[in-house]
Amino acid sequence: MEAVLDAVERNTRGKNEARRLRVSGKIPAVVYGGKDGGKPIAVDPKMLAKILRTEQGANTLIALNVPGAANARVLVREYQLDPVTHELLHADFYRVAMDKVLRVQVTVVPQSEPKGVKQQGGVLDVVHRQIEIECLPADIPTHIEVDVSELMVGMSIRVKDLATNPKWKTVTDQEVMLLHVIIPKVEEAPAPADAAAAGAVAAPAEPEVIKKGKKDEEGAEAAPAPAAGKKEKK
């Protein structure tokens, strides 16, 4: 799946430039992977948000159109959201070569209902929702399906149990458990006397609320983040 995103170059940086861009309906962004390091651009946050809301999300291959520059194929490396409004504030992209293998995180989606859930009263516990794979940019799967219908209580599926695909190969350790069927734990209710004693000893504590907000600035544009994927700063 490929999407198209229009962008414009920008020659200035800093929090004042970021404010000006956001007032004009755009957000600051940086494209990494070029010969000159990070290239500052501005994009429409609504168009980018629409891409990120698709099933493929940050793994969507994007054709970045910049006037006066050659079109580039990019992936979203990281993006920042406002902690209150959840609107996009900044985005980082990285260039990809269509003929070079890259590594991405892909979601594993269980299919069907396990027998251990229907017949034995178990529950399907998902241990890891994503795995890392290698593939060409055009072959990034939307997700990886795994059939769990035959799982009984105590049975699991690991990375090595996934069906192979000629277009991609797993990088995550083969022994990593993805999901298993377990019997849900039943917690015993405390005796009335114990509950009363506990209530008398322990005074109610006020909840501690820690709010973290993003400063009104573009964020670190000088160096790319260490790994691909999406990230919400609070």
What does this structure look like?
The chain has 4 helices and 13 strands. By secondary structure, it is mainly beta. The C terminus is likely disordered.
Draw up the topology in text.
Elements: E1 2-9, H1 15-23, E2 27-34, E3 37-43, H2 45-52, E4 61-65, E5 72-81, E6 88-95, E7 102-111, H3 115-118, E8 123-126, E9 130-135, E10 144-147, E11 156-158, E12 168-170, E13 177-182, H4 192-201
Query: Based on DSSP secondary structure assignment, what is the total number of beta strands?
Result: 13
* Structural class computed from helices and strand pairing: mainly beta
Morphology: globular
Give the biggest sheet: 6 strands, mixed, barrel
Overall mean pLDDT: 84
What radius of gyration results from the CA coordinates?
Answer: 23 Å
User: How many separate helices?
Assistant: 4
N- and C-termini, Cα separation: 30 Å
User: Biggest sheet: strands side by side, in what order?
Assistant: 1-3-2-6-5-4
Percentage of helical residues?
10-25%
Order of helices and strands: EHEEHEEEEHEEEEEEH
What is the percentage of strand-forming residues? 35-45%
Low-confidence stretches: 201-234
Which tags fit this structure?
13 strands; globular; six-stranded mixed barrel; 234 residues; mainly beta; four-stranded mixed β-sheet; 35% strand; disordered C terminus; 4 helices
Give me a quick take on this structure.
The protein is mostly beta strands and 234 residues long.
